[in-house]
Design brief:
Elements: H1 6-14, H2 18-27, H3 29-39, E1 42-45, H4 50-59, E2 69-72, H5 83-90, E3 96-100, E4 103-104, E5 114-117, H6 120-128, E6 133-141, H7 143-152, E7 155-163, E8 183-187, H8 191-197, E9 211-215, H9 220-228, E10 235-239, H10 243-246, E11 279-285, H11 296-303, E12 313-319, H12 326-329, H13 339-348, E13 355-362, H14 367-380, H15 382-386, E14 390-396
Parallel strand pairs: 1-2, 2-3, 3-6, 5-6, 6-7, 7-8, 8-9, 9-10, 10-11, 11-12, 12-13, 13-14
Antiparallel strand pairs: 4-5
Length: 400
């Protein structure tokens, strides 16, 4: 028996690195449980590892209870109904699932490849869990499965996800203990999914949304999504990318016109009343920063008191994808036509106090560039700066 209290030992284990945790898991019984729970919190599965993982779980079945995060990257393996199914049957406490599909070739040479469907084995696994977070990438799902996800998982992120009617007649139903979606992020080839989310039979499932992240586009479903969560929506994240970039990695053509190259992303006006919304976030790349990447009418509509009476802050996340020299920065128009001038004019004409925040994400090599842009923003927003309504942070992204 240890001379130290178990609570103290647990606190020590919580700050140990990976190698130390491995040693602790073998050192003493009083250290084993806590260290193994830390070691085996997440599991990444690919087809080539199915056999190895299945063997390890068979030898030590107790560690299957420790996994709370699962990343599953391969769904069309020949072993999915055998080895993978055996693994999934052992996992009972998964709370966060990252599900990465694969592209499948279209039968027609004239069509783009489609994302792979979610295998029934994995659907059954999802139904057995009490998931709190689901990340989907390169998948297509049925309308029934979409409804189930929205009604039973509180955090959902999607990338290149499409909705298609299938022959599967099963309609999973959320249990009373499961929470409907409160955080929804839509990115990469979003337009087909958004068309479904904007349908009248789907929008009631968005009534509990607190945070919505979506591209800034002028489409009817944008209004439908905002209106569906109008009474509860507290934060909106708009991803502002030029029209030409929206079509990267599209799974197939939808015939939807998003925006032509050079057009400013904008919202469909008028906007619905959003009484609970207190924070708006814009996400954009530095390459589009000096092109005024957001339409000025959209900014004015967003801060209008009659649309969002509880709005307190507008935050712009500016990512630097490559280092820029001071000479290149000098080519950017000083104030006229830039985003900070649009925000300055809009905030200056507002009847209420709004905080304008800037988060500049740079690499270590581009840190000086980020500081230079921060200085340009301060000069371009003198009114917000003098009134104490300007908050600028330069965040250095870690190097991998």
């Amino acid at each position: 028996m240890s001379v130290f209290a178990q609570d103290l030992l647990d606190l020590i284990i919580d700050i140990c690195d990976f190698e130390t945790l491995k040693e602790c898991s073998l050192a003493a019984s009083c250290l084993r449980y806590r260290s193994q729970r830390s070691l085996f919190r997440s599991l990444k599965l690919r087809a080539k590892k199915f056999g190895l993982v299945s063997s390890r779980l068979a030898d030590s079945p107790h560690i299957a209870e420790y996994f709370t995060t699962l990343t599953l990257m391969t769904q069309n393996s020949a072993e999915i109904e055998t080895t993978l199914n055996d693994i999934l049957l052992r996992l009972r406490n998964i709370r966060r699932l990252e599900l990465g599909g694969q592209w499948i070739k279209s039968r027609s040479k004239d069509r783009d490849p489609l994302p792979a469907p979610i295998h029934p084995v994995i659907v059954n696994f999802i139904e057995r869990q009490c998931l709190e977070e689901l990340n989907l990438e390169y998948n297509y799902i049925s309308p029934a499965l979409l409804s189930y996800f929205l009604g039973s998982i509180s955090r959902i992120s999607t990338a290149s996800v499409t909705v298609r009617d299938t022959d599967d007649e099963r309609r999973p139903t959320p249990t009373p203990s499961q929470s409907p979606v409160r955080y929804l992020k839509l990115q990469s080839s979003f337009e087909h999914l958004c068309l479904w989310l904007g349908r009248p039979e789907i929008t009631p499932l968005l009534a509990h949304l607190r945070t919505l992240a979506l591209p800034l586009v002028d489409q009817p479903w944008t209004t439908a999504l905002l209106a569906a969560a109008a009474n509860t929506l507290e934060r909106v994240d708009f991803h502002c990318v030029y029209g030409a970039c929206y079509f990267l990695f599209r799974p197939f053509s939808t015939g939807i016109r998003i925006a032509a190259k050079g057009e400013l992303p904008r919202l469909p006006l008028p906007l619905p009343l959003l009484p609970a919304l207190h924070s708006i976030h814009f996400h954009l790349l530095f390459s589009s920063f000096h092109h005024r990447p957001i339409d000025s009418e959209t900014i004015a509509a967003l801060i209008a008191p009659g649309t969002m009476p509880a709005l307190k802050d507008i935050v712009t996340h500016l990512s630097f994808v490559s280092s820029r020299t001071p000479e290149e920065l000098a080519r950017i128009p000083e104030h006229d036509g830039t985003l900070f001038s649009v925000l300055e004019d809009a905030v200056g004409g507002s009847e209420r106090t709004l905080t304008v925040g800037w988060i500049l994400r740079v690499s270590r090599k581009a840190e000086s560039v980020g500081q230079s842009v921060a200085g340009m923003i301060r000069e371009g927003m003198p009114l917000a700066r003098l009134c104490g309504q300007l908050d600028i942070n330069v965040v250095v992204k870690p190097s991998w």
